[in-house]
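Recap from last week: sequence in, structure out.
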Amino acid sequence: MAPVITALNPVQSHDGVTMTITGTGLGATFKVNFGCRSLAPTSVTSVTVTCVIPQLPAGQNNVSVTTTAGQTSNSLPFFYIGPPDVIAVSPAHGPAVAVPLSIYGKRLLTTTEVTFGDIGPAVDVVPVSDIALTVVAPAHPPFAPGVCTDTVDVIVSTAGGISGSPGPSSNQYTYYNAPTVTSLSPSSATPGSDVTVFGTCLIDIISVTLTPTGGGNPYQATFISISPSEVDTVLPLTLPPGTYAVQITTPGGQSPIVPAGQFTV
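Predicted structure tokens:
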């Protein structure tokens, strides 16, 4: 009886996965053919043959079986998918809350899961193309005291396997703890003078904003970062009299307005 195969399971996957071939007249199978590559089956019955998928060229590879009598079955298409690569995460850093991100790489179209280190899986995973997908990163749990950043690996799982680490930081995302302002020195100043801001997680500062407590447009101060707990600012020469709240913006967000962060001009 000539061998006939009727189904493959899975029909797309990667090497190392067990494939089950279903059909009739399979009892004398002694090799499974993936295109031009052949290998011995791991189990054989008259209606099923199993084997471990080998490394193959990406794309369609026709699968057939050959019996000890030299008879080769019909073939069915199997799609070999190589493991994904993550080339970039954009943006590569952000606050501790859940935020949307884009991930770029290779072989991403069959993505089923994206994990951020031990923080957990992303949600709203949408493969846009074979080289891009969008996700919402999981929120970071509360940081330990004194900890301002946490860098984690972004791992993509697809029908082709799990991504590795193609290069330093290219597949990583950094969470930033939110900044806080705890005190100012001095608490009153004149336009053009220096005010030193003390707080926590004052790193990679984007801006220092002076917000009028009585309402009105905010002003931007120039600044020099001294340490994660200190930043020196120079008040604008055009700053009118009034009371202002200092807010620091970093990749972790903007510090809240607090009484300890207010000064008068």
